[in-house]
Each structure stands twice: as structure tokens, then as C-alpha cells.
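Wait, mind explaining this?

_____
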Amino acid sequence: MYLVHARLRAPAGAELHASAGSLLRAFAMPADGLEHVAVHPRAEPDPVLGLYLLSPSLEEAEACAARLCRRAFDTLPRLAGWQLLSARAPMVTPFYEHLLGLPGGGGPIRPGPDPST
């Protein structure tokens, strides 16, 4: 399973409603491999849908997420006018570096000292 972030552009004055996830799940076909949708309406700089997809590869998951979003935006009246800016797997390294308290939050994660010694 892959997590793909679909970064979106809202139509003028619109906000991404929490129901977008259930709309997309109901709209998806079995071939889309969609397992779950997380809605992030206040993500910066743009709203994001987190799509969890069963797919043979990351590349195919990203392509499937893009197709699914575009199809939904073209078909579902409640999502009309939304635009897909990108569909990519998120890079989570900065999050884990932050959790580990690494300075600057950049660079590769390296093992620290063994706390049992």
C-alpha cells in the first residue's frame, strides 16, 4: 500500500470539505485500489488529499491517484472546479528527524548511542 498526497487548487472561495474523502471513496472503482482517504483542508500551501492505494509500484500508485482525482473533479458536482496540482508520495524524512530531535531537521538519519549501555 502506498500513500500519495494529491495537492489541490480550490475554485475561488471554496474550501475542501471533510466529506471529500467519503465522496472519493464512494466514487472510486475497485481497479483504483483506493483503501482510505485522509482530508487535509488546511495544509499549506494547498489543501491535500492523502490517498492510500493498493498498487504494484509507487509510480503506478501516483498515476492512479492522479487519474482518480481528475475523474472525480470532472464528474462529481461537489468537487467541480477543483484542480490537481500534483500527486506524489510524501517525503517523511523531516518528520522523523524532528521526532529524533536532530539539529536542523536535515540530512540523513543516523543511529544514535544505544540507550542500554
Notes: The longest strand covers residues 2-9. Confidence is low (pLDDT under 50) at residues 106-112. The radius of gyration is 17 Å. Residues 2-102 form a domain with the Alpha-Beta Plaits fold (CATH 3.30.70).
